[in-house]
Give the backbone structure.
Amino acid sequence: MLLETVKLTASFKLDGLIPESLFSTYREVLGRLLDYAWAGRITSFKRLKAEKYHELRAEYPRLPSHYIYTACQMACSIYRSFRKLRKRGLAKAEKPFFKKRVIMLDDHLFSLDLEGWEASIATGEGRITLKLLHGTYHERFRVMRAGQAWLVKGGDGLLP
């Protein structure tokens, strides 16, 4: 019997404040990783993590370690996309950059309590708990396990 994995996506609005310093620190880490990947032509997540993880952990000791882990994943993904666009002549920039206010969270950095409609997110100052704003559509997610999340600041996540 053939088994398939189905991934469902839902958007939840959070009622509360996520520290702006978390977004700026993540963007700074991601920018440094992108510069390093671009300079060394590194497209492998394993290689980028092996070469930069310990240095960034020493520089950002209060930041939970999985933020650096997910930033390495994003940096490799962004750099690979940039290379494809560059090869096709569609990239306008000299090197890849990241300008959005977005954070990729894995299951170590956040948890959802869909019974109490709360989200818990790890930050450098400890975990924060935020209320989830939901509608009837979101009820179907009660029995599912969340694996990954994206925090997007504002409507489109772009910097002013």
